[in-house]
Amino acid sequence: MKTMDLTAFFQGRELNAYEYFGAHAADDGIAFRVYAPNAKAVSVIGDFNSWDETEDVMKKDENGVWTATVKNAKPGEAYLYQITSKNGQINNKIDPFAFQAKLRPDHDSIITDLAFDGWTDQEWMKNRNKGFNSPVSIYEMNVGSWRDKNIRVEELENDPGQNEEGLFVHYGDIVDELILHCKKYHFSHVEVMPLSEFPFDGSWGYQVSAFFAVTSRYGTPIELKEFVNRLHEAGIGVIMDFVPVHFVKDAYALASFDGTPLYEYSKPEDANSEWGTANFDLWKETVRSFLMSAANYWLKEYHFDGLRMDAISNAIFWKGNKMMGENKGATDFIKRMNYMLNSEYQGKIMLIAEDSTDFPNVCKSTLDGGLGFDYKWDLGWMNDTLKYLKLDPIYRKWHHNDITFSMAYFYSEHFILPLSHDEVVHGKATIVDKMWGSYEDKFAQARALYTYMFGHPGKKLNFMGNELGMLREWDEQKGCDWFLRKYPMHSSFERFFAEMTGVCTENDAFFYGYDPTNFQWINADDSDHNTFSFMRKGSKDVFVFIINFSTNPYTLQFGVPFQGMYQEVINTQWSRFGGRIENEQPQVLRAFHLPLEGQPWRINVQLPALGAQIFKVTRPQD
Fold it and tell me: What is the mean pLDDT of the chain?
């Protein structure tokens, strides 16, 4: 039976509290330990004692930890803690450190053995890194609704399908197809929406009840380990969404755990979140150890390559409101957690902030006063870009800055450009459907958008279905609309996505994205034509992007710094991508020596309406 010096736990510096608290095998049975310092009495009840609270009464030590060893308990059995508060109120509570729980509507904790000897990803774990100088393209997915249960993707091309109530796809059902899919579209990482147990399907896992329990919806802890291992074997990283800010208020979970606000703030105005959940009191050292241990648990036990931290805005500022000021206890916690996790994993994991505020130094090292994240979602880029593309093109000239503004602040953080699940739900429309215009115009602009996105500095994130050009908003009860592949516009869009992302992930011009010399505007001010042009520069190659968000085709000249030939490698209006250019002979342009826009050379380019082009530069010395 493992023992632990609890000093670090009470100092808010413990990463492995789950190895002590919870239910663990002992020489003479299963040892149960729960922190409930303000409880009057605690019993462990479960399958092993017929749920009789008098059978296994726990003992409290001087630290407020209640313990009991149950001889006949064994893995797979359900249990709860019956907690009597000082005022005599009795509640049955889940184990905060349980590794598994029953599927909703049940919630009992389950004794679980995490032992797994099937890891074969040693080489991956040795060589993985934060990806600053690598092509990082993240595929965000909801495991349960990637595809429908028992219907493979190729079958879904001809059948819309729908998940039956309560029937979820499991990790092993999809891993082979998922690997092939990620390879086809050049996704370097899969980001799974939260896998900690949660009671309400419609929360998508962002309202957590059990922070160490792998949700029972998609499989067992061992099956999740096998899933991650398979992806690693295929050279694909795995990131998980982690929710360190709030938790569900359900009576069986963490709220008023021992009859007092043990995990949440004591003041209701601080404890109540905008989502109807309870905010963690991130000033408490025991809460800090609980959450840091939870973060470490997923990284250590399941070999996740990073965590995307949800709702960080609501940690940085009280209630997420800048006017209410910085929550210093919360930001101190974030700094400590990020520092300790980075130290634990020798700087090889990704720590990503979903933060919509302008709080400075989110991605700066904690040693230099920053919050210590590696990346931050650029939600400003997302909002500005989509707002621009919803406009009728005749009005876009007055909103030109919506496209160019992101580069004014880009180098202040390590940004990821996200087109996430949040943008394709709740009546917001899918990415394609947000675009202005007719059916054909929507797809044309979506192709131009993605070319602009992958040409823009920063790492990339797309939610499942974006690569299909889905028109139906995401629904957690249904799989992606794979049947769309039988329609020419969607199959052409898929072809475009695969080919364009291939170009943008195979050359370092596109992924050394945090060096200011890697990007240069050619013309950022052509609002009259709704065009944007820029260069991406790698160790050897230079690429020119020209984007026309107007409904008019143009022949325009652009100033360029290099003599040589400019070979068109992508044109989003080529017919094979669903565009209107039947003659797909790439343009090959020779730069001629005549200064323009401060550059010594210029090229003469035919721009298709609502299109984007990528040119590779071949200089004389090349």
Answer: 95
